[in-house]
């Protein structure tokens, strides 16, 4: 068996792995049926569809000829590091770290930190553009999650715990 497109082959395997994991995880919840869906129904269907899509992509990578074999290039460590770090910092800002006594810093500070950290993943950093983007994201997130959806999580840091 000859792999004709490495990128598609490994992408398909990744989709199949994530799909199977979602479908397997969904079996721990009540599934229900199409008319009365349980909490596990959507993840199960999504996992099956994702695994099927991965199978199609993997099969295509084995059958359809590509010009250069679509080789997998170097691993991009810098973007991976900054995107993962930005999400971890955002999670800490929303929930805090009780184990070390760090209270939640809130949604607004979390979004600004998320935007500034993740913007370092690219090749260029423009401070003014990042400030504008962070401000727009913070305002829109506040309106969507706090005002419209009425979700209960901290918007600003709790100053009494500092």
Automatic annotation (TrEMBL):
InterPro entries to which the protein is assigned, alphabetical: DUF1468
Keywords: Membrane, Transmembrane, Transmembrane helix
Positions of the DUF1468 domain: 10-154
Positions of transmembrane segments: 9-29, 41-63, 75-94, 100-118, 130-153
One Pfam family of this chain: TctB
Entry keyword Metal-binding: no
Domain of life: Bacteria
Protein name as catalogued: DUF1468 domain-containing protein
Gene source species: Rhodoferax saidenbachensis
Taxonomic lineage: Bacteria, Pseudomonadati, Pseudomonadota, Betaproteobacteria, Burkholderiales
